Write the structure tokens for this entry.
Amino acid sequence: MGEWSLFFLWAGVCLAGLLVALLGEYRGRASLGMGGKVVAATAYIVAALTLGAVESVYGRLMLLGMGFCWLGDLFLVSRQSRLLFLFGLVSFLLGHVVYTIAFLARGVDPLVGLGALGLMSVFAWRVGAWLNPHVSQKMRVPVWLYVVAISIMMVTAVGTHASESNIFILLGATLFVLSDLTVARNRFVFPAFINRAMGLPVYFTGQLFLAASVAINL
């Protein structure tokens, strides 16, 4: 079985875990939701491994970032604990930071990156203004740091795509940012199943795209 066949096999496992996670969320069964997320998150890491992630600096950095995201998925299972949410926020923040380093290591078009920086600065400001009225004083600094981190990650993803036309990086980063917005909406603005129903598929699909980006010959 070729490496891409194995990748799609594990992508299927990831999507199966996603369905279980959504079922758990819909029925309010935390253990089922957690189990589905763990399966899905483990699967996208294994999917990256099937494409030779350990064979390059970029791939190893992506594995590290995915590891932080794996921890974030565990911490965000509870919707009641502010402490666990903060741990999840920090885990995903570190994931974004490592992804940013990975994109920089792979190469970024500086002119396109500067253009993206201008656009994402506006994005960060608008997201912060949207969330500020709903976020407690204690959470504002972590939330703003996170907004800045996802914006910088997106800037470097756009720059890397411009440098080598790697559509997997661009799609993966974009979907990751969109999923973060659904998490923020669910936590701070309007908690409802619809946020998770939209956000989880977007998030895991984005991670699969990022896993695909580790392929050496694209």
Q: What stands out?
A: Residues 3-212 form one domain. The longest helix spans residues 137-164.
